[in-house]
Amino acid sequence: MNALAPFENITVLYGHIHRRHFQQTGNARHYGARSLIFAFNDPLINADKAQLPFAKDDPFKELGIRQIAALDDANSNTVVEINDVVLAKTEFSSVSGFQQMIKNNNEEGRASNDSD
Question: Is the pTM of this model over 0.85?
Fold first, then answer.
């Protein structure tokens, strides 16, 4: 963190923790990626480090990806916007992969703005 201290506005993106996470340290905002395969408990809520149990009725619970956009605010400051893309079982013809997930969220309004 000492290397980042001289900077005014820092955004750190990272993954491999298998859960949504946000933390502010000084001028740096840290955003953790969600998992696409195994979701884990938040250690602040539950000390168990095991993955969350599979729910047959909601197979994608706590799984997904995050879209990131850098936007300028009214004062010409760059603001990072993080939106969760929720995985779903719904399929759309003529699209595949990432576009499938985005289409599902845009049409059903399932993307959530993460205002940690």
Answer: no
